[in-house]
Automatic annotation (TrEMBL):
Species of origin: Costertonia aggregata
Entry similarity comment: Belongs to the RutC family.
Domain of life: Bacteria
Name of this protein: RidA family protein
UniProt xrefs under NCBIfam families: Rid family detoxifying hydrolase
One Gene Ontology MF term: deaminase activity
Amino acid sequence: MKKIITTKKAPAPIGPYNQAVLSGNTLYISGQIPMNPGTGNLIEGDIKAETKQSMENLKAILNEAGMTFENVVKASIFVKDMHQFNAINEVYASYFNTDTAPARETVEVANLPKFVNVEISMIAVN
């Protein structure tokens, strides 16, 4: 059985998908871009601020499902420019305990939704 997880504290989907789906004890969170959920505006021009907003959107969805970043077992980061990896990684790392951080991949892509610089998705288990 699946349960749709949604919160106004993260951006509404911009297509035919949901913010997250809970199936059993596993939460699948759709990719989050640096969009402010209150204004609908994109955070632009500073990859650290963009990454922080994406992570805050993920945090809001995790919280709505009764979870935290400690529940995350897998993360996927998509970036437009791998040269920004260190700055993205610095912000991303601040949300996790190094000893219990999830598995992850970081992939450079040609473009992302709304032409943002970073998008992050996660899988969490309760």
